[in-house]
Write a structure and sequence with these properties.
Blueprint (H helix, E strand, L loop, with lengths): L4 E6 L5 H11 L5 E8 L5 H8 L4 E3 L8 H14 L4 E4 L8 H4 L6 E5 L11 H7 L4 E8 L9 E8 L6 H24 L3 E4 L2 E4 L2 E2 L4 E4 L2 E3 L1
Parallel strand pairs: 1-2, 1-4, 2-3, 4-5, 7-11
Antiparallel strand pairs: 5-6, 6-7, 8-9, 9-10, 11-12
Amino acid sequence: MPKPLRIAILASGRGSNFAALLAARERGELPVEFVLVASDKADAPVLQLAQSAGVPTIVLDPREYADRRAYDFALFDCLAASKPDLLVLAGFMRIIDGDAMKPWAGRMINIHPSLLPKYRGLHTHRRALKAGDVEHGASVHYVTAELDGGPVIAQTTLSIEAGDNENTLAARLLPLEHQLLPAVVALIASGRLALGEQGVIFDDAPIRKPLRWQGGELVR
């Protein structure tokens, strides 16, 4: 029987996407082991969530380091010590130094609340509404030095409704994020999905566009 995929989580906030991963594992849908939850904020609720689940945690305060680069290398040294197979950014609200993440190319993913390449960075719901979009969504992508610019793995979409504001749109999207991220991690854990020289590889073939969350599964 193959060993569970070892996962380290980076998060800055409440950890709802991490909670979704924990729930998927408890349902038997994710053959993974969570080896560490790392945060840049000592009061982040995700830390209590991890501790309640018996997952080791660590906090590194950016203010204790000379600059962002020094902080990021220290953070990634801590992550490496836990020997993860995959790093999952689940609401980690920092831009990471490109050199620090180089050893993790193809082994680090992020969930972002927009249909990338639209609306990289912050305030994605506000920007979608301001642009008059009729559709919004979330993306899971491989992390590169380019902000929210790595190869997109999969997306989930929803229609923007009349009367939506930032808060209602975010609230309606979040449950879809909680389906999308575990589904992607499950494909990685099963060996069906990886990053290769030709881009994202799904079932031994490159994908031409992001996988879509449809009917409870990810499809081409």
